[in-house]
Specification:
Helix content is 20%, strand content 26%. With 66 residues, the chain is an alpha+beta fold.
Length: 66
């Protein structure tokens, strides 16, 4: 499967990012998927998740399972 093109999608950095070199990720919301990349290295590859996978991840994070 080829990597989807996300050049037309707006990447968003966390509002909690301090911008002082701290680790941070950026997220791009597609129609059917969520992409995540390292904000310090945006030219590198990103991780792509389906909306169902992303929802399950967030639920686990909120519940303290992860």
């Amino acid at each position: 499967m080829s990597e989807p093109c996300l050049t037309h999608i707006a990447w968003r950095k966390s509002s909690r990012s301090t911008g002082n070199g701290s680790d941070c990720v950026e997220v791009a919301l597609g129609d059917t998927s969520i992409a995540i990349r390292d904000s310090k290295n945006p030219q590198q590859a990103f991780h792509l998740f389906g909306r169902t996978e992303w929802k399950a991840f967030l639920e686990h994070m909120r519940s303290g399972d992860l």
